[in-house]
Amino acid sequence: MKRFFFSGALACMAMGLVACGDDSSSSAPVEESSSSDTTPALASSESGGTEGSSSSSLLTSSSWSGAIGSSSADTSRVNSSSSLTGTSSSLAGEPGDTTRITYALRRFDGPLTNPHKGFTVPTEAAWTFDPGFEYGPHGSLNNGAWDLVTYGSGYQQWNKLNPAKGVYDWSELEELLDALSAHNMGYALRVFPYSPSFIRDDGTPEENYDWTPKYVYEEGAKKITARYKDNNANAAVPVWDDSVYLHYAKEFATALAAKCDGDPRIEYIDVRSFGEWGEWHVSNLDGSHMPSVEIQKDMLKHYASVFKKSLLVLPSDGYGDVYTYALSLGVTKRDDCLIGIPGTADSLVRAYEANMPTVAENCGGYAIMLNYTDVIPGGYLKWTPERWVDAIRTAHLTYYVLDQDFDDCGYRFYNDNKALADSMTKVLGYNFTVESAELLTVATPAAENSSDTASTLNITVRNTGVAPCFFDVYMVAEFVDSTGASLAQIGETVRIPKGTFKDESSQEFAFTYKVAAGKKNVATLPGVSVALSLYESEDAFRGGKDPTVRFDNEGLQKNNKLLLKP
User: What is the rounded distance in angstroms from the CA atom of residue 421 to the CA atom of residue 148?
Assistant: First the structure.
């Protein structure tokens, strides 16, 4: 467990309360914001000098290495679910006039959702949010599953997005993205070239299931006739390694990247270029064959070359050398056969160990999986609460489909498993809990009848989820008045780089606010409290926006700030 100080140099000098040495912990360091990559911390000022300022600004490059250190305290034994007695006291024998406030902390009671992690349900189109859709978030059934949903997911058809050569129609996708954004949700995008689910018989029109645009065939791409094993129907299938097909599949990827790469409404994008449902397999199409491993790698390489910002995901049946190559490109992995097939969750551990978020669905919808027979091989394991929890923990899941049935958007699942599902919102992905917090104020005599004052907030935070946070997080400490309005920032903004705050690890932070003798100390004003916040960017904090990431503690305000109480 690492300990970080902002500005810890003063705290160590004045009190000797914390260790300031280095250790060999493998935890990646939390970085202080600096002018090189973030906006400087706020400082309240007036004519004649600074009222209150962050002592972090006193740290030079030489003192910084000494300010990052390790504590010998075993914080793993802190029980974050129990209340810490709140006290405010003067400390005899301490240098100067010293007081300490210890804050009472409890875990948040109820489900806790946060961005860029969590559960999804299928969101086929913007009509999902129409009040007329009874299972939607505004529907007549008051479907509680939506309280857990943090992003939408679903598929788009290649031929609808790209109806003609060089022609793209993003209108329906835009409508869905806007609807999701209005509900504070992102979208996991999958574009299918083919969907055998709609093959009914030999006479089914090709456009019902072959979603490769017609112009691709008109340009010379070949297709074959294969037998759909599900009902023995004959169906047209693209030749997946045809050079014309590959050319236009890449051209579409380039257009999709120009449209979507870095769009904050996009959670991640599956690379769905080959096979049934774009899942990189043709197991149900007798006579169809996947392209070679080298062609599969080449498609991944192209996607990685045009998508510079958005997270890319390799579908279920990309295994072996293809999986290894995907990880080398920064492309993570999903699997759609959890619970039903033993050991499937283990397949995602490689992506987790490569410090990437993992993505999963189950073998089928919840209602279907309840009827599985538990006969292996030849069957599937039925859904049980124990298997569901084990899948989340084993795969260190960041993203998971609550239920993939389009018909009821998780309604039955949530009704049957509300308490369990609520609890797993705090397990899936990252989950930050403040385990201990105290404010230490030291008044040091500066001249006759006057004192300099330093207030240091020391906190311990634990990631109680099963995965790191895979985006930069900015932690802010503030003094606030009785209405929650900010009076002054305590110390500097702390940037926690993505992927560095590992699951089940604790880290300590110290924020120091200094007031020169004779200046107003907002920390001593009546009704003043301490608030902690987590932002997705420092610009959001500087712009006065509310934080979007929430701590797992009681005291969360409507604006998502955590109010600490003695």
Answer: 8
Separation of alpha carbons 15 and 28, rounded Å: 27
Helix (H) or strand (E) holding 44: strand 44-46
Q: Is the dihedral of CA 205, 206, 210, 215 positive or negative?
A: negative
Burial of 474 (0-12, 13-18, 19+ CB in 10 A): buried
Residue 14 predicted with pLDDT over 80:
no
Distance from C-alpha of 250 to C-alpha of 331, rounded to nearest angstrom: 16
Identify which of 66, 38, 141 has the alpha carbon closest to the alpha carbon of residue 541: 38
Read off the pLDDT of residues 230-263 as tens digits, 9 standing for 90 and up.
999 999 999 999 999 999 999 999 999 999 999 9
User: What pLDDT digit, counting tens, does each position of 412-464 carry?
Assistant: 999 999 999 999 999 999 999 999 999 999 888 766 666 789 999 999 999 99
Distance CA 203, CA 206 (A): 9
* Cβ-proximal residues to 466 (8 Å cutoff; 6+ apart), any chain: 392, 393, 396, 397, 427, 428, 429, 503
DSSP conformation letters of 172-209:
HHHHHHHHHHHTT-EEEEEEESB-GGG--STTS-GGGT
Residue type, 161: L
Q: What angle do CA 156, 159, 165 make, to 5 degrees?
A: 135
At 517, is the pLDDT very low, low, confident or very high (cuts 50, 70, 90)?
A: confident
Query: In whole angstroms, what is the distance from residue 19 CA to residue 512 CA?
Result: 16
Tens of pLDDT, residue by residue over 200-214, are 999 999 999 999 999
Size (the chain), residues: 566
DSSP conformation class of 89: E
List, for residues 71-129, the tens digit of each pLDDT value: 333 333 233 332 223 445 544 444 558 899 999 999 999 999 999 999 999 998 999 99
Euclidean distance between CA atoms 290 and 41, whole angstroms: 54
Helix (H) or strand (E) holding 294: helix 293-306
Q: Show the domains of the chain with their CATH numbers.
A: 2-108+439-564 (no CATH), 118-424 (3.20.20.80)
Asked if residue 383 lies in contact with residue 364, where contact means CB atoms within 8 angstroms, the answer is no
Give DSSP secondary structure letters for 457-524: EEEEEEE-SSS---S-EEEEEEEE-TTS-EEEE-S--EEE-TT-S-TT-EEEEEEEEEE-TTS--GGG
For residues 73-107, b (16+ Cβ closer than 10 Å) or e, as one string?
Answer: bebeebebeeebeeeeeeeeebebebbbbbbbbeb
The model's pTM is 0.83
173-208 in b/e form (b: 16+ CB < 10 A) is: beebbebbeeeebbbbbbbbbbbbeebeeeebeeee
Q: Please provide the distance, in angstroms rounded to a whole number, between the alpha carbons at the two ends of the chain.
A: 25
Provide CB contacts within 8 A for 517, sequence distance 6+: 446, 447, 450, 451, 452
Q: DSSP readout, 227-270?
A: EETTTTEEEEEE-TT-HHHHHHHHHHHHHHHHHHTT-TTEEEEE
